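Board work, copied verbatim: S-adenosylmethionine-dependent methyltransferase At5g38100
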Amino acid sequence: MLSSSTTIRIADFGCSFGPNPFIAMQHVVQSLKDKLLQVTNSTNNIPEFQIFFNDHVINDFSTLFQSLPIGRSYYAFGVPRTFHGRLFPSRPIHFAHSSCAIHWLSKIPKELLDEKSPAWNRGSIHYIGTSNVEVVNAYVAQFEKDMEMLLNARAEEIVEGGMMVLVTPFASYTRLMNFFGSSLMDLVNEGKLDESLVDSFNFPMYFPSPEDMTKVVEKNGFFSIEIMELTYAKSKLVDEADAKTFMINLRAVLEGLIINHFGSEIAKEACARTILKSEEISTWMKANYEKSCQLFVALKRK
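↓ predict structure ↓
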């Protein structure tokens, strides 16, 4: 695939606006160059590289492109739209990459929005930690639908023999989100927030297990699983100060969702209260920081 192409096209799905995508893409480009040298044993005719940075239309593409590395060895393009559907014509992509993106669902499962449904998620804001199996099933079903759309789209866009690498959070550290839920319930117990608002709020994220990924890939049939493993990033986020910093960063990811549902004042207070739980969070992190918190999947287009 590499030796027969004059241009290698790479897609980064869910790129956000930097700098992480630039670091990842530089690794990808360098790895492909190294592989090409192994195959051809020659530095002649090194192909050109095109990278397509994809995210939702509301992503800050201006900041992304203003931050592009000056010495990059690729041509950069922006592709605004959800990655759950088609983004490219047939077969232009050689390598696809997505980090910390596929766990975002395309929408909240409809069952969670119906107060009369057995999947009404009373007193909780996510499936993690709930005892209601109907809630979990609703999340799983939505994840499977989304992944079927994603895999079908990529199957049309990735060349035969092309690769797709997916890195996504695993359920270990995601329990930290429940600290935001406990802060919201604190406000309910103090009479500052209507409990029904909490019941009707759910984070639109599902964190797949290896079994989940194996099921959707095998059902889809267009890709083979080359590598699948649970990993953890060695971290120093194990004391109180670092726990506080970690939760501030997590707040940056989640606060917009909370504002949209509860309004800015409630969101501000709930997030501030969550950060004040840093001692409790630190204790939890010390007990869990070496547990697997990432799922790495390498797929090959059949």
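The radius of gyration is 21 Å.
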